[in-house]
Amino acid sequence: MEKVADYLKEDLDILFVGFNPSIRSGHIGHHFAHPSNRFWTILEKAKLTPRKLHPTEDYKLLDFNYGLTNIVSRPTKGAEDIAKEEYKEGREELRRKINKFKPKIACFVGKGVYQEYRNERKIPWGIQGKGVVEGTIDFVAPSSSGLVRMSLEDIVAIYRELNHILKHLHS
């Protein structure tokens, strides 16, 4: 399997943080590559990208000043296959990345990702009270997995809030 590269640079508008790459992503070396994953559709419908990108175009998110990373870098079938030690190491590494690159918003693609990062269980959608890393807004959005039982419209509505936050930050 290929390593799925992070896409990071300083002062990103949004850093999207996933659990970990799927087996499919690991095979082709690109984020959110499983056919049932709706990440790229969600970004387009939320008007965060002008068109639906293909997983092999994941690097193009940098053109929009967005980045991609995961809390755990090892590809697995599902998040249940991630060991506690991997989460602990990933949590520390993610804090280092956010401290170093200072994105305006860290958007966690799934409550479970943020629960592991924050080590808390009661997490609302959207902006979190106090971010873990000072200067970065923590934002929790639904997972883009096809297994999520929310409607696509409800998921997109939450992601669309990112546009409002960015407008406020850039004004």
Structural description of this entry:
- The chain is α/β, with parallel strands linked by helices.
- It has a single domain (14-170), classed as Uracil-DNA Glycosylase, subunit E (3-Layer(aba) Sandwich), CATH 3.40.470.10.
- The protein has helices at 23-28, 39-45, 84-101, 111-118, 152-170; strands at residues 14-18, 66-70, 105-109, 126-127, 137-141.
- The longest helix has 19 residues, at 152-170.
- The radius of gyration is 15 Å and the shape is globular.
Label this structure with key terms.
alpha/beta; five-stranded mixed β-sheet; 5 helices; 13% strand
CATH class wording: Alpha Beta
Percent in helix:
25-40%
Q: For the record, what is the CATH homologous superfamily label?
A: Uracil-DNA glycosylase-like domain
- Tell me what portion of residues adopts beta-strand conformation: 5-15%
GO molecular function, one term: pyrimidine-specific mismatch base pair DNA N-glycosylase activity
Pfam family, one: UDG
Domain Uracil-DNA glycosylase-like: 6-158
Protein name: Mismatch-specific DNA-glycosylase
Concise overview:
By secondary structure, the chain is of the alpha/beta class. The chain has five helices and five strands.
